[in-house]
Amino acid sequence: MANAAAVIGLTYAGTSVQDGTIGLFLEIRRGLNEIAEVRGKDTVIPSAVGRRLRNRVRDRRVIELFGYVMGNGTGEAVQRADFRGLVDTLQGLFDPTTSAALVATLENGGTATIAARTVNMVWGNEKLPALRSVSIELESVDPEWVLTGS
Length: 150
Prior knowledge:
By secondary structure, the protein is mainly β. It has a single domain (9-35, 57-148), classed as Elongation Factor Tu (Ef-tu), domain 3, CATH 2.40.30.200. It has one helix spanning 76-93; strands spanning 9-12, 15-16, 24-30, 37-39, 43-44, 51-52, 57-70, 99-105, 111-123, 131-140, 146-148. The strands form 2 sheets. Strands 1, 2, 3, 4, 7, 8, 9, 10 and 11 form a 9-stranded antiparallel beta sheet that branches. A hairpin with a 6-residue loop joins strand 5 and strand 6 (51-52). The protein is elongated and about 75 Å long.
């Protein structure tokens, strides 16, 4: 695990997103323990009571990462420059045109892996020059986590 403060260790595209030494710390806010969205509809027959159940198929899983990006260094100018570099790095890592492996190291030491693509990245409005919260929404169209280990 990259950071002892994290309950669930996390990497995306092979890169730790919980590296306190460079001022980046993200955690899974939703999508790990929730169920996948399904598609399919039940049939309504006008003359019958209720509905007729039809098959449902797991369709996609929405995953939200939430955390903070903070510029490091001595002095405000260095912190601002470091912060801007981290924002650029994060935008490159979470490129919405590609899918990558999100790997969570679970409480029991096992891992959960899922291929996911970035849907949205929303930055907080903190009034600090080199610290912002960020929420990153991912989606997987292969919506089941692959569990390994413990």
